[in-house]
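User: Please run a holo structure prediction.
Assistant: Happy to. Please share the sequence and the ligand.
User: Here you go; the ligand is coenzyme A.
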Amino acid sequence: MQIERLTQATATACLGDLIDLLEDAVASGASIGFLPPLAPGEAEEYWRGVIDALASNHRVLLIARDGASIAGTVQLDYAVRRNASHRAEVMKLMVHQSARRRGIGQALMEEAARIARHDGRTLLVLDTRAGDPSERLYQRLGYQTAGTIPGYARSASGELHSTVILYRHLL
Ligand SMILES: CC(C)(COP(=O)(O)OP(=O)(O)OC[C@H]1O[C@@H](n2cnc3c(N)ncnc32)[C@H](O)[C@@H]1OP(=O)(O)O)[C@@H](O)C(=O)NCCC(=O)NCCS
């Protein structure tokens, strides 16, 4: 398994795999901003927006390559305000259901942190649905809980769930 940083060109070449990954994550019930079933073209439209964002140097897109397929992905979004030039948001961590619990999510997060630190971003922030496996993963990686917002995001059942805001200072 290798972690790779994608450019616009390499991300475009991987578009099909990225779409599969998002569809798989949404179908698994993940809380990543989408509800199942995805509309036709919804996943592609999302990834094309990410690829557009890669034109700036404010977005980082990483994938975990497992043989011929892509097993996982994560993004960094660098804050652009002058008072926030030390800060980045970690977004859309997802690992294909067939590849979970093999350390891929952790490896993606560690490489994202390494790149952020290299780029002078020393504060990482993110949010996740309370009680999800991701919350445990982030805590294990040293993220601190800033707080919880009840009723923040809806799941496929219509139920509203709490979201946890976490942060990590990179030393
Ligand atoms: C969250 C997610 C990315 C984890 O990916 P992963 O590759 O399975 O995670 P790892 O194998 O690196 O797990 C690292 C640690 O995280 C914790 N963890 C991961 N999955 C867990 C689970 N299902 N239950 C409990 N702890 C879990 C464990 O501490 C684990 O270490 P261990 O396996 O030694 O116990 C994956 O479950 C996923 O894609 N979920 C759907 C998308 C999502 O919710 N993304 C988060 C958006 S904020």
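The first strand starts at residue 2 and ends at 5.
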